[in-house]
Sequence to fold (315 residues):
Amino acid sequence: MILTVTPNPSLDRTYEIPALDRGAVLRATADRVDPGGKGVNVSRAVAAAGHRTLALLPLGGPAGAALAGLLGAEGIEVVAVTVAGQTRSNISVAEPDGTLTKINATGPVLTADESETLLATVGERSVGADWIACCGSLPRGLEPEWYAELVARAHRAGARIALDTSGPSLTAALRERPDIVKPNAEELSQAVGRPLATLGDAVKAAEELRAGGARAVLASLGADGQLLVDEDGAYFGSAPAVSVRSNVGAGDASLAGFLTAGGTGPMALAAALAHGAAAVQLPGSQMPAPADLEPSAVTTTDAVPLHRVLTEPVS
Fold:
């Protein structure tokens, strides 16, 4: 079972349009409303893969109720912490060439009591969880150290933590030694304070995060592939070129694939690649089901043409 924690969830409405023309009246060719937030997407991908998941969320107002209803319809158990503020609503505009324009709302301000209730509820619900995935930006009212406190409490309860956040929140949490962190290329560059021009640069940056406290780093490098650096070495995988329909939630699908495949080693990396490649071919933030995955993507253990998982350290 995977418990996800999303401190700033959302309702996500996606419009597909022929082209984005500023100042014009645009007619959507399709639209959809999905539950939003990085941890929410991880839960949706875990559930789509047939595994049990709990989605722990601060929810408020009609948007919060709608979000809980959408997740329930997907068979996901929602653990709601009621907050006074309104759950945010986001808008995405998708063009046929894969270009995505997003407008993200700020979300509610959480009080000190609401913050503590969230942390306490994580502790209560972590019993029996194989992983706790803590994902996304923090809402207003929570300090960057909030994730660090969550990781510390979860570890005291014996749980493993996957952390997908960035900036000061990531930096602050490293001291509590999260079991895995999942930056994208830009976030990894930001964390070490320099550009990353090569795969070798990305490996060195991931090793710096490990030196800072992370036990493993799973880095999404966009269309180039994904990198896993842990105590056993560095592994790189690349997925076959696909037609991108929407990249919303692709990184979250990758994390779900990684965790449901055990959360360690090249087999889990191959599963992450398969889930990410499948997700970008789906509309909006729809999460891939097993039928959407390339069959070979979750069985590889060595270097193969479609998903080049290097079982030797990369340099």
Q: What stands out?
A: The longest strand covers residues 10-16.
